[in-house]
Recover the amino acids of this structure.
C-alpha cells in the first residue's frame, strides 16, 4: 500500500535538483502544506516564494520571475490555479512563453465533500485550449518524478495536475518506462484499448486484469501527456483493437475523451466510449466514493469495456 | 531636455500616422502616456537595442498595452525597429505590429493587453533581481482605469511585502476611460492614499506631460529604499492637440482628414513654441 502522494514525489525531485540548480524557484499561495512543499520551503528559503491567497498574482509573478531566468514551479489547488488565474496562465505564461510549470494540486474531486468550488473537473479542457500550454496528468509517484525531471530540461510553460491522495503504484523505482510526450503502454491487448490519465490509470490496469479473467484482452495506455496528446502511440494501439474506452477524472467535454475520440475518429474510425464525471456538481463523498458511484473504478471500467465490445 | 520635448511631438505624429494607416488605435491614451515613455526610455532606463540581451538591463512592462502605438513610436526612435515599417504595417493582415505589445518584437519583454497583468509580472521581475543581487530596476506603466482590476492590488500588496525598492510603477492619471470620467465609472481618489496604505512611496507629478517633472520623479524613486515607488502622472488624455484633449470620445478613434490636418498643425505649433 503506497503512502506517498504524487505531490510529495514532486517535492522530493525539486529538493534534489534545487541543491545544484539555484534558478529553481517554488511558489505557493498559502498552499505549501497541502502541496507537500513545506520541506522545500524549509530547506531552500531563498528559492521559495510565498504569495498568500492570491492565485492571479502567483501566476503573473511566476511569469515575471521566469522572464528573468528562473525555473518556476507554482503550486496551488487545481480548482483555483486552473480557473481563478486562467487568464494569467494564458497571457503571462503561454502567450509570453515563460518557463512556468503550474502545479494543480488536489486535482479532480480530491477535495471530495468540499463541493464544486474545490473540484477541478474542467482543468484539462481549459488548459488544453490555450496555445503553447502543455497539460500533464501523471499516474503514479514514479512517473510524476520522471515528468518533473523532464520538465526541468525545457523552458516552456506547462500545467500538471496531481491528486491529493496516494495512488497505488503502477511502476517501480527501477521500472518506470518514460519518454517525454509519449504515452506508456502499461499492458498489451488486442480486444479493447483503455486510455486513461492521472488517477484513473490504476483502476484501468485493474480493469484489464478483471477482463483478462473473462478472456478479454485489454490494452491499457497511460496518457499522462494529455497535451500534446501522443497521437502516434494512440493510433498505433487503437489500430489493433475493436473498441476504445477512455477514462478520466474530468467533465465529459473537452478532456482526454474528447481528444482521443477526435484523433481516433479522424484516423482509424471505431467505437470510442468516454467514461468521465458527469456534467453536473458531483455527489458528495470521498474521491473513492465518488469514483465508485460514477463507475470510475476497475469494475465500472471493465463493464464499460465489455459493453463497448458488444 | 528641450530636445526630448520636441521629440515627443515628432513621436506623436508617428502615432497618429500609425493609427491612420492601421485604421484604429488608442489615440487618447497614447498621447497622455507618450511623455512618460519618452522620459523613461531616453533619460531613466538603461534599455537599448545594444543591451537587450544583457541580463543587467532595466526591464519595462507596458501594462496599459492598448497604448502600444506610443510604445512602438518610442522603441522605433530608440532603434529597435524602423518607424516606416511600423506605420506601413501596423494592424494590417499578417503584421507583427499588432494592437498590443508582443515579445516576438525586439525591445518588448512581455505580452500584455488584458489589464492588471503588468504590475504583478513586474513584481516577479523585481523579485528575481533581488534574489540574484542585481542592480537593474523594473518599470511598468498602468492606466488609471486599469486600477479597477483586483490583480493590480494583489501585485501592489506583494511589492511592498517583499520591499521591492527596485520597482517603479507609473499611473497615467488622465482621468478618462472609455465610458467617461474615472471618478464616475469607478472612483480612485484618493489614489495617493490608496498606494500609501499598500506600503508604497508615492510621487505626484503635477504635469505628467512635462518630461522635466517626470524625470525628476523617476530620479526620486531611484533613491527610495525598502519600498516600491509609484509615480502618479497627472496627464491629459489626447495631450498635444485641442482636437483630442480631455475628450473620452478620443479613447479609440481615427481622425478624419480635417481633424488629422488640425492635429498635425497643433503638434508643430506646440513644438515651435518650446
Amino acid at each position: 500500500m503506497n503512502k506517498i502522494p504524487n505531490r510529495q514525489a514532486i517535492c522530493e525531485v525539486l529538493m534534489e535538483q534545487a541543491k545544484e540548480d539555484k534558478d529553481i524557484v517554488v511558489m505557493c499561495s498559502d498552499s505549501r502544506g497541502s502541496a507537500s512543499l513545506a520541506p522545500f520551503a524549509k530547506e531552500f528559503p531563498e528559492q521559495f516564494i510565498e504569495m498568500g491567497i492570491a492565485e492571479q498574482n502567483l501566476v503573473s509573478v511566476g511569469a515575471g520571475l521566469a522572464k528573468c531566468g528562473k525555473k518556476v514551479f507554482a503550486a496551488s489547488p487545481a480548482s483555483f490555479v486552473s480557473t481563478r488565474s486562467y487568464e494569467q496562465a494564458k497571457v503571462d505564461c503561454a502567450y509570453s512563453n515563460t518557463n512556468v510549470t503550474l502545479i494543480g494540486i488536489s486535482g479532480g474531486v480530491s477535495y471530495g465533500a468540499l463541493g464544486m468550488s474545490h473540484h477541478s473537473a474542467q482543468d484539462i479542457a481549459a488548459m488544453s485550449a490555450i496555445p503553447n500550454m502543455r497539460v500533464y496528468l501523471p499516474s503514479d509517484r514514479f512517473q510524476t518524478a520522471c515528468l518533473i525531471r523532464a520538465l526541468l530540461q525545457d523552458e516552456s510553460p506547462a500545467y500538471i495536475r496531481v491528486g491529493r491522495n496516494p495512488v497505488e503504484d503502477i511502476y517501480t523505482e527501477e521500472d518506470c518506462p518514460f519518454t517525454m510526450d509519449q504515452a506508456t503502454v502499461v499492458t498489451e491487448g488486442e480486444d479493447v484499448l483503455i486510455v486513461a490519465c492521472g488517477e484513473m490509470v490504476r483502476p484501468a490496469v485493474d480493469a484489464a486484469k478483471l477482463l483478462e479473467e473473462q478472456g478479454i484482452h485489454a490494452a491499457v495506455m497511460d496518457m499522462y501527456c494529455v497535451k500534446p496528446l501522443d497521437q502516434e502511440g494512440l493510433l498505433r494501439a487503437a489500430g489493433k483493437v475493436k473498441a476504445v474506452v477512455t477514462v478520466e477524472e474530468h467533465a465529459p467535454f473537452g478532456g482526454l475523451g474528447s481528444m482521443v475520440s477526435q484523433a481516433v475518429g479522424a484516423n482509424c474510425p471505431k467505437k470510442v466510449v468516454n467514461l468521465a464525471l458527469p456534467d453536473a456538481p458531483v455527489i458528495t463523498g470521498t474521491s473513492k466514493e465518488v469514483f465508485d458511484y460514477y463507475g470510475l473504478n476497475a469494475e465500472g471500467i471493465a463493464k464499460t469495456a465489455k459493453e463497448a465490445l458488444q | 531636455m528641450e530636445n526630448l520635448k520636441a521629440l515627443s511631438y515628432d513621436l506623436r505624429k508617428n502615432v497618429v500616422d500609425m493609427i491612420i494607416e492601421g485604421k484604429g488605435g488608442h489615440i487618447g491614451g497614447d498621447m497622455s502616456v507618450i511623455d512618460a515613455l519618452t522620459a523613461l526610455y531616453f533619460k531613466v532606463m538603461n534599455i537599448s537595442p545594444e543591451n537587450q540581451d544583457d541580463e543587467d538591463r532595466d526591464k519595462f512592462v507596458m501594462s496599459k498595452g492598448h497604448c502600444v502605438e506610443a510604445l512602438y513610436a518610442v522603441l522605433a526612435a530608440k532603434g529597435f525597429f524602423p518607424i516606416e515599417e511600423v506605420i506601413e504595417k501596423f494592424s494590417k493582415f499578417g503584421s507583427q505590429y499588432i494592437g498590443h505589445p508582443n515579445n516576438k518584437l525586439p525591445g518588448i519583454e512581455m505580452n500584455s493587453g488584458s489589464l492588471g497583468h503588468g504590475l504583478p509580472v513586474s513584481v516577479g521581475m523585481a523579485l528575481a533581481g533581488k534574489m540574484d543581487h542585481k542592480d537593474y530596476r523594473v518599470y511598468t506603466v498602468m492606466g488609471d482605469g486599469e486600477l479597477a482590476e483586483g490583480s493590480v492590488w494583489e501585485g501592489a500588496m506583494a511589492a511592498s511585502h517583499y520591499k521591492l525598492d527596485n520597482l517603479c510603477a507609473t499611473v497615467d492619471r488622465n482621468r478618462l476611460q472609455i465610458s467617461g470620467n474615472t471618478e464616475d465609472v469607478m472612483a480612485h481618489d484618493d489614489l495617493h492614499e490608496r498606494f500609501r496604505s499598500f506600503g508604497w512611496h508615492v510621487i505626484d507629478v503635477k504635469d505628467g506631460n512635462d518630461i522635466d517633472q517626470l524625470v525628476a520623479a523617476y530620479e526620486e524613486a531611484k533613491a527610495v529604499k525598502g519600498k516600491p515607488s509609484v509615480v502618479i502622472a497627472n496627464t491629459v488624455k489626447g495631450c498635444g492637440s485641442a482636437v483630442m484633449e480631455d475628450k473620452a470620445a478620443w479613447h479609440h478613434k481615427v481622425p478624419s482628414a480635417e481633424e488629422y490636418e488640425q492635429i498635425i498643425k497643433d503638434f508643430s505649433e506646440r513644438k515651435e513654441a518650446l
Observations:
- The interface with chain A takes residues 55, 59, 61, 103, 109-114, 116-117, 120-129, 131-132, 150-151, 154-155, 157-158, 161 of chain B (CB under 8 Å).
- Chain B has a mean pLDDT of 97.
- Chain B has one domain: 2-272.
